[in-house]
## 1
Amino acid sequence: MEIKFNSDERKRIQQGIKEKYKVVAINPEGKFSYPTGRAGLEGQKYDPEILRALPEDVLASYCGVGNPFSLGPVTKGEAVLDIGCGAGVDMFVAAIMVGPEGRVIGIDLISEMLNRARTNLEKTSFKNVTFREGSPEELPFPDRIFDVVISNGVFNLITDKAKALKEVFRVMKSSGRFLLADQILTGDTQADSKSMVENWAR
Amino acid sequence: MLNEAGFADVEWVAETGFNSSPATKGVLFRARKSGISGIGRVEMEPKSALSKY
């Protein structure tokens, strides 16, 4: 069941997310209850050969909750969208997989994260990776253009998940794959809305 | 929710072991856009469709 928030609550949630992740953009270490950076990537069994191909300080900015690439292959020439791309580490992994003939586009709400992603991109030689600021609830892309959509630890932060999922569906090609790593609630969700708003991004 | 959005072959594949709190669990999902949903529609060529992004 999805909780419906009013516009003020949505704004406060988004503000909380922005405040948290502009700090994470500088350095994710110690901001989460699980390993980040190289330790997180290795813990999630990302391909060691791909990790060796990326600069160490780029890897250090990883703060995902799982490995979307463990869910199936991303192949040469494909177009990949990363929802909530953060500092871009998953995008660079995808860029290696799709090769120069493929495309990788990332979208994120947090300008500080996108700045970190652009700084990271400058440390690589990828020419097929681009970023856009925007909301997963209103993807700024036409219908049916991505072969693969990935997302890592972002959907749990989205207030209107149903709308965002419909957007993912819309931009995927008819045989497209959605590879999702995320957090789900396992306990009771009886918390009052004030508490949920205040703790949404924690 | 993935099914409601139109996805097919929705699978909860595994837990990741990366849990952000005692009340949450890291998980991996995989889903596919049904081929049926694309029948009669023209797929855009990614290279040209994505050139402006």
## 2
Amino acid sequence: MAIKDIPVEECMLQGNAACPGCPATMGLRLVLKALGKKTVMVIPACCTAVIESLYPHTSFDVPVMNIAFEAAAAGASGVEAALRKQGREDITVVAWAGDGGTYDIGLQALSGAFERGTNFIYICYNNQIYSNTGIQRSGATPYAAWTTTTVGGKAEFRKEMGEIVLAHHIPYAAQTCISYPEDVYAKVMKAKTIKGPKYIEILAPCPPGWRFSMDSTVEMGRLAVDCGAWAMWECENDVMTFSGKSKLLLEKKVPRKPVEDWIKHQGRFSHLFKPQRDEEKLKVIENHIDRTWERYRALYLQK
Amino acid sequence: MKKDVFTYIIGGKAGQGTKKAGIVAANFLAEFNREVFQMNDYPSLVRGGHNFSVVSTSIGKIYSHYMKADLIVVLDQRSYDIHKEHLNERGILVFNSDNTRGDGIGVPITTEAKKYTDPDLISGVAGVAVLAATIGATAKKLEDIITNEYKGSMEDNLRFAQAIFTAADEKIKDKVSLQQGKQKKTILSGSETIALGAVAGGLDLYFSYPMTPSTPVLHYLASHGRKLGVVTIQPEHEIAVANMAIGAAFTGARSMVGTSGGGFCLMQEAFSLAGMVEAPVLFFLGQRPGPSTGVPTYTEQSELRFSLTPGQGEFPRVVASPGSIEEAFYLTAELLYLLWRFQTPGILLTEKHLTESSMSVNIDPEKTPWAEPTVHTDGEYQRYRDTKDGVSPLLFPPSKSLIKWNSYEHDEQGFTTESAEGIRKMHEKRRRKQDSLVTFLKTMHTVNIYGIGEPLIFTFGSTTMSVLEAVDIGDIAATVVQPIYLEPFPAWELERYQHHHCIVVEQNSTGQLESLLKEKAGLTIQSSVRQYDGRPFDPMVLAQKIREVI
């Protein structure tokens, strides 16, 4: 899989109303290239819902249905059931939701759709905050990150949504990152060929939300993977495989970069460095990542 | 004498600091001991939208912004095109000569801004500098204001402000002379007075999930809550929000939740639960145009009827809507008090125009009631003891007595009952509580009445501010009647107007207050003024509309 293998046809056009450097539009562009025009999208409240339907900036070339915040997976289940009844199983149904709509308010509907075996792809673009309502914390916000509702830094760790999904034992689940377009594209292409519920989570570094400059979106995603704050993997019929740099980290073939390399570029962590370094919290973050990878190794490393 | 109003508008792109400049301008004008009203207009966009802020000031009371301005500062061509219509006959328009062609006074704002690291962020400061020059403030005064109001890049902000001040000063120096008022007043937003009013009334915990226009209260309490002794929690959705608040009330903690229409829909089941278990929980509801996602950052009053009847089943509830940003402070505390007095859920009904606008206020925490429960003292404890007034004393865990809050129909002890007599008895207890609540409200101030004579103009919520300003500037002789309480509806105060000439002004398309006045107080409504375009009324336009229907 190389960049040149990704089709040139676009279903996500230029001139939309997203912020410069927005990872959601980068993700949508890739996802829709993989899925093509025979796709129905279901979108709950999230940044995409804000940018997706403003004339003359409507940039989607596929049908879109907005749904209530808590109900992306339920709305998609309805679309899928009706298309199946009409014999239109050639149409791919995709729910596209943010981390707030997935980790928090939408979790119940998501779990229900997975348990029912809904034939759809659920994609969570995870920017680790509620961004369009003004940068509030979500269940995906990492420890110590500033948000408008965690003014001194978040006191809790992010939940492992991917592993919650794994507990449903659906045919396909994957984590990827916007900085690796080939990986995003390949995982969506694979999901498209599998029947039943599919889950793909894309790490989506948000320039205004994380407080980094808009030309660094790709770099922020790569650093997150390099330091182990984010893992790329796929799990097909309960067989777990780590991808790209995450595979090398799992197998200890490369050293993990210090997390500081990633967070020092982000204003949401600036309180850890000034007025003086908060060694204690920096250590808590490093230790948490180490423990997470030890657990990954114990669970997922093929012996 | 005609009311002396000075209005300032600053417009630009999102991210240029127009809202901040509006707030700074409001504080600047307050330095002249004048009263101010500030309104922010911004679209629900993640970037690039046209934002503007309006500040109107007067020597005396001012209840609204005006859309015809004496001074307009626009940072880009789009803002110029939009706001040139808003200049009054003696007004001055200052535009950014680097990117805008038009009539008015050009100042090279971008050229100056480019000398600093973040030319976009700094732009709003130019608006403050132009205001300073126009009203004849000294360079020193401007420096003080910038130093007090802008954090970060202080040197840049100061030098930039002085450069713009000097450039503007040559062209517009002392164009306007503002009369000094007598007393300096604090400026607060509706969100701030709601948060502070709740604290003054005894708030212990605040639960909320982000939803415009209630979010500023969440932000305020998330950053100041600790100092104010309030725990603020943002859980995973509104269902959790409302049920956490009931959980907190179970332990005796005074709790409030904040949301907007969509979130409140998710809270309805909990609202009904609070009615059944008799939990005092205050629901702060900020309205925006619906249905569904609607128009997130604009204003409307279309949830009046919805707020009166949420939740399945029959139970007492209190709904009240503040008519001003100042009243929001006292009413929030009063509602907390009432809900704990009568152990039932209630709603503080507001709009974006109230929660996100700011005005000069006079608030005194000593004048608010403090919410306290009636506590069980001796004898056998029964959660739902069938008392004369329907209010059963409370007991909180830990306790040796059995404490049961039951969502099923229950007996006095709190045990589930399905007996005909048991069901009837508990219904009657809740009805008696409703009667006691009405009796109590009859001793309270439930309706605001301003002015004398006919016609009578009925309104509610933030539209009250628009109406008061309209009758003032329009010199309209009328009585303005604002029911503060909407459930129980204070018909006892309003029935006397049954044979009068009544007009209703409200911000929805179906006339919800009008139908309520007819239904509950038997009033005859001659005519109505309704606005449902998401924008608050402009007092000049509203005055004209009122004149047309009188």
## 3
Amino acid sequence: MSRGSFLYGVWSLAIVSGFLAASIFGYSPFADGGRSAVVAGVYGPSHK
Amino acid sequence: MATEPPPLPPLTPVASAAAGPAPAVKSLACPNCGGTIELRAAGYTVTLICQYCSSVLDVANPDVQIITRYNEESQRLAIPLGTRGTLKGVEWEAIGFLRRSENGSYPWDEYLLFNPYHGYRWLVTDGRGWTFGTMLTAEPEPGFDGLRVGGEAYKSFFAHGRAQVDYVLGEFYWRVAVGEEVETADYVRPGWMLSFEGNAQERNWTLGELLDGNEAAFGFAMAPQRWRPGGRPPLAHQISPYAASAGTAFKLALAAVAALFVILLLFGGSRASKSYDFNVRSDAGAASATIGPITLDRAFQAVTISAQAPGLENAWVDLDYALVNRKTQESFEAYGIAERYSGRDSDGDWTEGDRSATTKLAMVPAGDYDLMVDASGQRWAYSGSNGSTVTITVASGGRFWSNFFLALILLIVPPIFMLWRHARFEAARMGESDQGSALASLISQDDDE
């Protein structure tokens, strides 16, 4: 296995581990909690 | 760079022990300078260059006549003639050196190696790597888009060229002279090159294996030599250093993505949901409701809040949530909106919005909670519905697809980068070929027009 492949293997392991930890603890940087209400003026359809 | 050598059982070296008695070393006196010269392959060698005065001697003639005298200065060779080294498990002695070029351009060096039991081999370099060449005794067979040798296919790379000898030193098995020209053609497969050289008198085929950078260096005690990115284009038969890495990376990426799906299935579900229905009217102000208790038993978990408003039409419902811990009064706030619009214009009927809204809270600690909901309905147009029943469902757990796609991007980007480097390497390699040159000239013509 080349050095690049090994490093990518470590990288993949880190990503999968991070995803597992986030799934166990219910974490997401994109969660809705704390988001403020939509400001006035953006209600309604954006159709045309 | 591991390459499988092609099976070459029918091919034998041009000169071998089987062809005759092992040649003996013989000493000669140079008729020009008087220096003592060793003839290492007596009986095979026909031309010998004096190492002291660079005179070319015809050793096939018993009188050893001087054919030509060179005035060029002797060069310092990477492998001094007479050096012995081991390649492919056989000890070879460098006995001849040629510097050749295409009409003075693209020079390369060829060392003639000799072993009394294995015959002659070539060690060829142009500074980007070493190729170990074995002369073939049979013509290659024609194949699709190239030639075949030992069951392996070789694609045409340089269809036609002309090589000339610019400098010569040492012993050879033919009468070599500066200025000697031959027609050339090269065919390649990764790690291997099949080279043709011929003129009106003879045709020669040589099968060259690209050596690992260290192999020739260790064999002949030289500094390692290998192609490096960013400099000259790769060799015609060079194996992409990125191909194996990219292939392995894609396999690892596939396994990692499969692991993501498994984790998503095992840990992404929601549990213990509670629902509450209430009517929201646009002319009656905000409606409030409290849903609870909601028990969260894990140390940390996501909380999913879903709202369904099936009666919405050209209206929306603002939903403010506060998930409050009964014990600590810690509050987690979030917001959602259910909306639905429709109409008709010159393109026909259209609809927009979603009557359901899903809101997810991240990392909520364990405890008993109440979900406090404030909902206010609004009409977008006079035709809008004046109210709708809103069903709020709250559950512990939930799938964050955003996490999944973020992980997917982080996993896929490196292999794509490796693939791009491999493609760039191959483009640079093929750019040197006749096809690449033809393409380049075609592009150049288009640019001129």
